[in-house]
Design goal:
Helix content is about 20%, strand content about 45%. A 5-stranded mixed barrel has the order 1-2-3-5-4. It is of the alpha+beta class. The protein is elongated, with a radius of gyration of 17 Å. The relative contact order is 0.22.
Length: about 80
């Protein structure tokens, strides 16, 4: 019984340490701030672009579909597609 409890606690710690929650979002870009690697959708959602991804294709008025993770209270985009 003790072994099962130790395994359960260890599993709980691993899952809580992962902490990253992934999601998908799409919408029209309202504003882009390249210096902060951030853009805002028309619904007010703020998204930050992960290092290693280019922000050059993000333009105001374009539609975007993005995959993101929650990191330190921010939605950090890990992949995106832009269409006009």
């Amino acid at each position: 019984m003790r072994k099962v409890l130790v395994i359960a606690v260890a599993l709980l710690l691993v899952l809580s340490a992962a902490g990253a929650w992934a999601g998908e979002i799409q919408g029209k870009i309202q504003n882009v701030t390249p210096a902060d690697r951030m853009f805002v959708l028309e619904d007010g959602t703020q998204l930050w672009v992960a290092e290693g991804l280019s922000v050059d294709t993000l333009k105001e008025g374009a539609s975007v579909k993005a995959t993101f993770e929650e990191r330190d209270g921010k939605k950090v985009v890990t992949n995106f597609e832009v269409s006009q």
